[in-house]
Amino acid sequence: MKYQHGPLAALFCALVLAACSGPAELNGHDITGVMPALQYELINEQDRTVEAGAHAGTIRLMFFGYTHCPDICPITLGRIKAALSAFPPEERSAFRVLFVSVDPQRDTPERLREYTAYFGEQVIGMTGSQAQLQALSRRYRVTYGYGEKNESGFYEVSHSGGVFVFDREGRARLLFNQSIGPQAMAHDLRTLL
After folding, report:
1. How far apart are CA 81 and CA 121, in angstroms?
2. Would you call 19 exposed, middle or buried from its count of C-beta atoms within 10 A (0-12, 13-18, 19+)?
3. Can you tell me the distance from the alpha carbon of 121 to that of 77, in angstroms, rounded to the nearest whole number?
4. To bridge 137 with a disulfide, which of 56, 88, 142, 169 should be the other Cys (CB 3.0-4.6 Å)?
5. Would you say 189 and 163 are in contact if contact means Cβ atoms under 8 Å apart?
6. For range 47-71, the mean pLDDT
7. Count of alpha carbons within 13 angstroms of residue 84, beta-carbon side
8. What is the rounded average pLDDT of the residues 169-180?
9. Residues 29, 35, 36, 40, CA torsion sign
10. Is 52 within 8 Å of 42 (Cβ atoms)?
11. Is a pLDDT exceeding 50 seen at residue 52?
């Protein structure tokens, strides 16, 4: 009986190369050890005080914005929704999206609840006092500011557009910028499951 070693050798080489290739390439920025662990005390969309430990054991994506935002917020939350839809329901349940409104004057718990419902059950709206929001924005180096009110009282809020990703232990792991699409997000999020 004659044995063919070619296919077996090719399989062995492929396994060795896969083992030596290191961790998967990430699309987002790896911020492991650079940014502090997840910590906050805010008011959620149920009008209750909530701390970071409330969602311990889940992978959390934190994004700062406001519900009257005409572009960055709905686009970013839409991308996150599309990224999470790539996961089967049992894996999707491992994620929470923390939408932190930096516009507490207009973004009441009720308004946040209505807004976040559009983007999926994983999205949780939160806000806080100016002091709480300023402390949180300093912690994660996020900026925001308020424009002048027009005649009807409307104003815009400028804000950072990054999405911070924290692992199940609350450690900062990834930062997604505005150029990262849903497939790239899903790829990176899968590495944290």
Report:
1. 10
2. exposed
3. 12
4. 142
5. no
6. 97
7. 23
8. 97
9. negative
10. no
11. yes
Q: Could you report how far apart the first and last alpha carbons of the chain are, in Å?
A: 47
C-alpha–C-alpha distance, residues 154 and 143, integer Å: 20
Confidence of residue 127 (pLDDT cuts 50, 70, 90): very high
- Structural domains in the chain, CATH included, are 26-147+154-190 (3.40.30.10)
Cα–Cα dist 34/112, whole Å: 30
- Report the alpha-carbon distance of residue 176 to residue 171 in Å, rounded: 15
> What are 190's two structure tokens?
């899968």
Q: Which residues contact 27 (CB under 8 A, 6 or more apart)?
A: 176, 180, 184, 185, 187, 188
Q: What are phi and psi of 143, to 5 degrees?
A: -115, 150
